[in-house]
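assembly run, all chains below
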Amino acid sequence: MNVIEELGLVRIDDRLIHGQVIAVWCKHQPFTRIVIVDDGVAADPFMQEVLRLAAPPGLQVDVFSVEEGIKALNQSTPDRGTTMVLLKSPQAAKRLYDGGVQYNALNVGGIGSAPGRKNIFKNISASEEEIAILKYLMDRGVEITLLTVPGEKSRSFSDLVGKL
Amino acid sequence: MINIVLVSHGDLGDALIRATEMIVGPTERIFSVPLLPNESPEGFGEKLAVALQDIKGEETLILIDLFGGTPYNVAARQVLKGNVECVTGVNLPMLLELVMSRDGASLPELAETITQSGREAIKNLGPMLNK
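ok done. output:
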């Protein structure tokens, strides 16, 4: 079997590319490529332009629907280790995983509050359904860490899950 | 009169309005839409839409605090409207220039003018004062 290298980072952040991702993550780890996997942004060329415009030179930004993302991320490319995958929700993370992109680690970096969601850690909120999805991924061996940016306090989802 | 809408991380927009008024006195038609720490981009987008509803159809200059930040991601689409311009990296000199010169200039001219004056207002004092 062909072993595919681990992705640099798989992150759930409903803000996608923003100050924390560019200013902190990209200085902490030498990412060369950001892959946004989101059906909404994939169908919105103007939003893609807005996101690409603000990315630093030298950082490639690709945008895929979940279906396209599964195909693209299942390929062994030389830049996999320096690729950051950005997703808006646990739902997208599950679709990607079930579609065959079986990452070992997942960073939950930001999910804003909304009706039906409760705050679980710092700037991270989740609904019952989203918590159940994170458990589903955890049960399959994905190591889930709640962390906004490197250097900040982090929390392992497996430590938190019993208290939710 | 051209409307000014500040979109910023937290209280920055409100603080910039207060600082401007400290210098030039009370101002009109200037609004702030803050992004709160736990707010989702969608929630912030709805708040911005409500704020812009009141000034629907009128000329509006949106001042965004950080190029590439969430307020930018959410507000940038407004620039597609014919009577809206967006400028990022807002600072106090830009806001001062704007409130003093917004009568008389066209909206695209005004956006360009404050983009230049915002840059020119940034000085490294050491070399200028022969340190």
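The helical segments of chain A are 19-28, 39-42, 45-54, 66-73, 90-98, 128-139, 157-160.

Chain A has seven helices and nine strands.

not gonna interpret more than that til we talk
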